[in-house]
Structures are given as C-alpha cells and as structure tokens.
Amino acid sequence: MTRRGPNTQRGKAASSRNAIKHGLAANAPVVRQVESVEEWEWHLAQVIASKEPEGYLETQLCVRIAEVLWRQRRISPYEAEKISVALDQMPEDYAATARYGAKVSGRSIEDSMTLEKIEMQTGIRMIPEPETLNMIMRYESHLHRLLLQLLHELEAMQARRKGEQTPLARLDISGPPGS
Fold first, then answer.
1. Considering Cα of 126, then 132, then 134, then 139, what sign does the dihedral take?
2. What pTM, to 2 d.p., does this model score?
3. Residues 94, 98, 99, 103: is their CA dihedral positive or negative?
4. pLDDT per position as a tens digit, 65-89
5. Which H/E stretch holds residue 151?
6. What's the pLDDT at 49?
C-alpha cells in the first residue's frame, strides 16, 4: 500500500492549512469600506505560518489569533480619527467660546482668541474625551487578554502534542497596578 500525503513535520504542517486556502473571504472579519480581503488573507497566512499549527483545532486557534490581532489593528486608527474630529471641531467651538467671552468681558473677539489659548485647546483635544478613552482602553484590554489566552492555549496544545509537560494552570496578571 502506497502512503499518500506529506511525510515530514513541515509538510504535515503545510498541508494542515489546505482547508483554509479557499472560502475565507466569506467569513473574513474585513470592513469592506476600509480593509481588503487580500490584506486579511495575507495577515491570516502570516499568523498561521508563524505558529505552524497541526490539525484542525490548532489551525482554528491560529485563525482566532489572527482575528484578534486584526481587530487590534483598528484601535489606533479609531483613536486617531476621534482626535481628528475633535480638532476639526475646534475652530467652531473656540469661536463660540470667544464670542461668549467677548460678550461677557466687553473685549473684542480677536482679543479673546490668543495663540496661547488656541494651542491650549489643541493640546486638550490631542487625547480623546474620557468616555471615548475609557471605551478604547477597555476594548484594547479585552482584546489583549483574549490574545494572551489564545496564544497560551495554542502553545500548551502544541507542547502536549510534542510530548512536553504543560502546567495545569497559568497565571496571567494584566492591568494597571492596584486594580
């Protein structure tokens, strides 16, 4: 009887990914308006290649890791967009404040709009408002914890497959001190 299929560990690892070469676009976590399926497929292939999964379960953990990393990529652009919107609104907001200040103080609007005050307002808007910042931090922390859990599970699974000892429990301490 002739054996078919790969014989080496490397060949087996490569063939374990055969099932994910097609059909990924249907389930890709891609936001069509700003991301491309091709970028996602490249990203996924890179994650899978770097973790060298064997079998269905390890491959699915790699797919999940790729999804979490993909979602993490969106955080910085989202934060930058929030800051840009706040800066775009600054002239209107500051002009309204200057008009009110001029009315209350009796000074001209130009006297109320100093370069120092404009720079101060710009600086204030370089960090998102607290509600948005807290949401971003919670989301980023959630994804980070999820990524660590997935990586640890994959590493433990791969170690067990290789006959290595794995700890029964793993302690991850994440978060700011004192929380």
1. negative
2. 0.69
3. positive
4. 999 999 999 999 999 999 999 888 8
5. helix 130-161
6. 97
